[in-house]
Amino acid sequence: MTVEKQLFAAMDQHLLEDATPSDYFQAASRLPEFQEYPFNLLLALKKADQEPTHHPEGNVWNHTMLVVDQAASRRDQSSQPRAFMWAALLHDIGKPAATKRIRGKLTAYDHDKIGEKLSRQFLLTLDAPEAFIQQVADLVRFHMHVLYAAKNMPYGDMQALKSHTDPQEVALLGLCDRLGRTNADQALEEQNIALFLSKLMNKK
């Protein structure tokens, strides 16, 4: 087994077994392998700043570490826990490429679409099974739809979401994403998830 696949296997194990996978990833990110593709896609998250109003926790890496820990506390609710946990890790992998400052504010438009491609490439490089890759890429692609529904934004494609992935899995990932930030309001975010699922059920 190559060093890259050994690291992939270790990441997989910690995502599926640890109560707080961020402890492992904080240490692993200092390994020399993280300087190389595809792991450097994760390392790039440390240099991707976010708008403090929405992400007071800081850069995308900090946010992602909070999200994987939130996901670990809920992975027993997932029908596909492996894909769910990897999607939690990779959900914002598109942000470094998407982040721009517009009118004085940091934005990351289309990071979900970019992330779908990058997460697929990341996992393909490590010879992950195609069905698993598809599950992860779909969750990454649609993870922003919770926000689109809650804020009545016109960017979503609810029909595509329902045909490509499990809405309950998107909702669970979306909850972890929303809670994976400093000072998150859990009651409000749970209401947003309920609204998302309600809109999906009423969408023909």
Automatic annotation (TrEMBL):
Gene3D superfamilies: cca-adding enzyme, domain 2. GO terms for molecular function: nucleotide binding. Residues 56-191 form the HD/PDEase domain. CDD domains: HDc. Keywords: Nucleotide-binding. Transmembrane segments: none annotated. NCBIfam families: HDIG. PANTHER family: CC-ADDING TRNA NUCLEOTIDYLTRANSFERASE (PTHR47545:SF2), MULTIFUNCTIONAL CCA PROTEIN (PTHR47545). This is HDIG domain-containing protein. It comes from Aminipila butyrica. The lineage of its organism: Bacteria, Bacillati, Bacillota, Clostridia, Peptostreptococcales.
